[in-house]
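Figure 3 (text version): structure tokens given as input.
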């Protein structure tokens, strides 16, 4: 098996692949490109004859108005803007629709077979089923299932998965709809390396991605300046990385269609559609499906907001009680037992420790005082963050392995600020013990390198069969609401002690 350094180097090579400068497109359409500020065609795909009935050289260095006189084109707007244009050309393959995409320095005009208007009503009618706000875990699961069922109905693909990105970069299939052509991936994880960060960045900028046939030969782009290729960041026809082509083949996928799900400007997940045979959907249907993905994203964000609001409303009194207990304890008027109960009720933890200028005070089930003091020095000297959380302390401290049974996970708060003037820098640590877990992967996540050819090369895993991984030295993860509780507790601590100090 390859070393970690070798694997890291190869994966970094994949990450550095400049997908937006791949220099070719898929053969389902034709591309014309130019620089912003002008309409001169500076690049064209080599299949222009097939779609536009003229050789590529006919288009290069000519104005768009000369080659498509019926097109009234306003090349203006912001990067990422897309304009859908119908009935641009009637050529050898029939009528063509176009998509004008604006980049940072260039424009792209991509022409594909015209849309089938009959599919629009289906999309519009179905969209209503996602215009709700799930308010419970059961409703959220039903919401996700309705979404993948709807996508399968709209696209006709054999399998549709809702793929959610996790905090460590890996992904998990949280809902699935299928025709029975594929085995189920529901509940399985995929390593972060399966979708490199550079590909995720493109998903943020482009709402959908169709690969109609993995066997189709890419079409090169011809440019006025040799060696210069247009930026295909916003292209819908952009050709596919050979690594991803092999990845899909290993999954027995011939056509794929993906829609990005964004929340707060970040990539939350994907709707991933797979088909065993070539399958093309016109741009109009793809863009309408992207609207469905946006509707789902609104429901997803509303669900998250509802959870956070409900949690905040329920935890505020607990935070108030804990801060009052800390303040009383520091002033010499509180009981240690009251403090312990109040602190442990804030988050679901096995133990907690408060450290002030006088010493270490432990509550619940904690590691040894000596370890806590060592951890405290590390937090003060190395971490320095006001809030720090990990579910695997062993990844940060070697001593975390020895003390994993009681302290695999730590949520740390240090006050800093004006409290130093009166009581020193208060630190509050919550501990969670080790919880051995079995993670279900779609194939062995470590097998990212193929050495069968006698030389190392980055290659997708050959198997996606269920692979069970036993994890050690980890606790239950700290949730977003746990972190929110720690931040609100710190803010209230600073406010209370500042007011008390000012009154003296």
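Below: residues designed for each position.
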């Amino acid at each position: 098996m390859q070393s970690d350094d070798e694997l890291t180097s190869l994966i970094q090579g994949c990450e550095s692949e400049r997908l937006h400068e791949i220099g070719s497109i898929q053969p389902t359409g034709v591309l014309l490109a130019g620089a912003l500020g002008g309409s001169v065609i500076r690049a064209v795909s080599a299949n222009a004859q097939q779609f536009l009935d003229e050789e590529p050289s006919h288009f290069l260095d000519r104005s768009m108005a000369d080659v498509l006189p019926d097109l009234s084109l306003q090349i203006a707007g912001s990067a990422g803007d897309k304009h859908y244009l119908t009935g641009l050309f009637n050529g050898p393959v029939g009528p063509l629709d176009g998509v004008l995409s604006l980049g940072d320095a260039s424009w792209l005009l991509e022409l594909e077979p015209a849309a089938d208007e009959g599919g629009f009503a289906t999309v519009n009618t179905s969209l209503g089923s996602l215009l709700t706000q799930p308010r419970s875990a059961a409703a959220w699961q039903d919401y996700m299932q309705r979404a993948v069922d709807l996508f399968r109905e709209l696209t006709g693909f054999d399998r549709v998965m809702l793929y959610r990105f996790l905090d460590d970069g890996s992904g998990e299939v949280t809902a699935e709809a299928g025709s029975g052509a594929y085995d189920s991936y529901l509940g399985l994880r995929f390593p972060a390396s399966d979708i490199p960060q550079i590909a995720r960045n493109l998903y943020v900028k482009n709402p959908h991605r169709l690969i109609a046939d993995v066997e189709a030969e890419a079409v090169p782009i011809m440019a006025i300046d040799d060696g210069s290729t247009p930026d295909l960041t916003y292209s819908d026809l952009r050709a596919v990385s050979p690594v991803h082509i092999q990845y899909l083949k290993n999954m027995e996928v011939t056509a794929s269609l993906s829609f990005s799900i964004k929340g707060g400007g970040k990539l939350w997940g994907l709707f991933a559609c797979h088909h065993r045979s070539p399958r093309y959907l016109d741009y109009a249907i793809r863009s309408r499906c992207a609207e469905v993905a946006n509707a789902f994203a609104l429901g997803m964000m509303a669900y998250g907001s509802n959870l956070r609001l409900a949690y905040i409303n329920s935890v505020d009194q607990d935070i108030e009680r804990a801060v009052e207990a800390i303040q009383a304890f520091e002033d010499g008027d509180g009981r240690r037992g009251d403090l312990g109960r109040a602190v442990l009720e804030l988050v679901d933890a096995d133990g907690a420790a408060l450290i002030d200028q006088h010493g270490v005070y432990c509550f619940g089930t904690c590691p040894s005082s000596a370890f806590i003091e060592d951890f405290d020095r590390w937090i003060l000297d190395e971490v320095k963050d006001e809030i720090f959380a990990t579910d695997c302390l062993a990844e940060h401290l070697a001593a975390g392995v020895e003390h994993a049974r009681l302290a695999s996970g730590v949520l740390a708060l240090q006050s800093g600020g004006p409290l130093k003037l009166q009581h020193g820098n208060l630190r509050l640590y919550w501990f969670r013990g080790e919880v051995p877990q079995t993670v279900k992967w779609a194939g062995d996540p470590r097998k990212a390198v193929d050495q069968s050819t006698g030389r190392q090369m980055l290659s997708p895993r050959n198997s996606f069969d269920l692979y069970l991984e036993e994890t050690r030295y980890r606790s239950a993860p700290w949730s977003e609401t746990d972190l929110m509780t720690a931040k609100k507790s710190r803010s209230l601590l600073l406010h209370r002690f500042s007011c008390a100090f000012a009154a003296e």
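Residues 1-11, 449-458, 500-504 have pLDDT under 50 and may be disordered.
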